[in-house]
TrEMBL record:
The chain crosses the membrane at residues 46-65, 85-107. Associates with the V0 complex of the vacuolar ATPase (V-ATPase). Belongs to the VMA21 family. This is Vacuolar ATPase assembly integral membrane protein VMA21. It holds the Pfam family VMA21. It comes from Pipistrellus nathusii. Its main location: endoplasmic reticulum. Keywords: Cytoplasmic vesicle, Endoplasmic reticulum, Membrane, Transmembrane, Transmembrane helix. Required for the assembly of the V0 complex of the vacuolar ATPase (V-ATPase) in the endoplasmic reticulum. It is a multi-pass membrane protein.
Length: 120
């Protein structure tokens, strides 16, 4: 029999050792989760992950070259060496913003799925 954290993880997935061994109907409140909802939840999570992966690649690189060429060298007239430095700072800030947005979206998506699971 599983104990502690492992048992919680198995039950969180909708299965428990008792459900797999019993021949009769499962007790109320311990039914396996709907596999269709799990698949749609997984697809939604994968789409979110891929979206933020694309953002993590494109936004910092795009902002680096855009701010270096047009903002720091073009508008402010900075030297090539200074523009590298400040454009790198902008790219690092962009990475942190994308990560913060990902955490926010993932947190809200997880709590939404948790609320939907509690209503069943």
């Amino acid at each position: 029999m599983l104990r502690g954290k492992s048992r919680l993880n198995v039950e969180w997935l909708g299965y428990s050792p008792g459900l797999l061994l019993d021949d009769g109907p499962p007790p109320p409140g311990r039914t396996p989760r709907n596999p269709i909802r799990n698949e749609s939840s997984l697809a939604s999570t994968l789409k979110t992950l891929l979206f933020f992966t694309a953002l993590m690649i494109t936004v910092p690189i795009g902002l680096y070259f855009t701010t270096k060429s047009y903002v720091f060298e073009g508008a402010f007239g900075m030297s090539n060496r200074d523009s590298y430095f400040y454009a790198a700072i902008v790219a690092v800030v962009a990475v942190h913003v994308v990560l913060a947005l990902f955490v926010y979206v993932a947190w809200n998506e997880g709590s939404r799925q948790w609320r939907e699971g509690k209503q069943d």
